[in-house]
Amino acid sequence: MQKFLAGVFFVLLALPLAAQEKAPEKRAAWPLSLADGLPKELPGYAAAPTDPLPDTDENEMGVFTQVARFYQRIESPTVTRQFQLVVQDYGKDKNLEAEIRKAVAEAATHPSVEARDVMVGGLKAFAVTDRSSGNPTTLVTVIVLPSRLVLAQGANVDRDTALKLLSHVDFKQIAASK
Asked: 26-176 in CATH: which number?
């Protein structure tokens, strides 16, 4: 009888644990789901203690909703590298590529700015690095959907480093966010 009771006890103890392991992962509702594809951590960088809530704003391309994650690496008292990943959604009917190309072409007219078309995760992207202050400031814009962008903004981060850090983004998950 004791073996039977011990067996029942362990089965009852194991059932809640098994249920926890199989429980589906809770997914955030839109617009928070836009951040699901952004990494919580980046190698060599400390993540901000909290992520800002979704924000709605407007720029020359229209009204957008965005989510962001911020990371930084302090290398010495005088060297800090900051990196921010932002997902911006402009709504279904928007196609942003022409406006982005125009902005990148305009930025490239400045002598201290280098602009390039690049591919990131099989997606069209534009990398712009400004070295006018001595330390590079890089902005990479990845077109995930015609109306949805991932922006990588790096202070004291060069283009190659920014592109490498972008490899940690799950673009498919960002594209699928609804």
From this structure: 3.40.1000
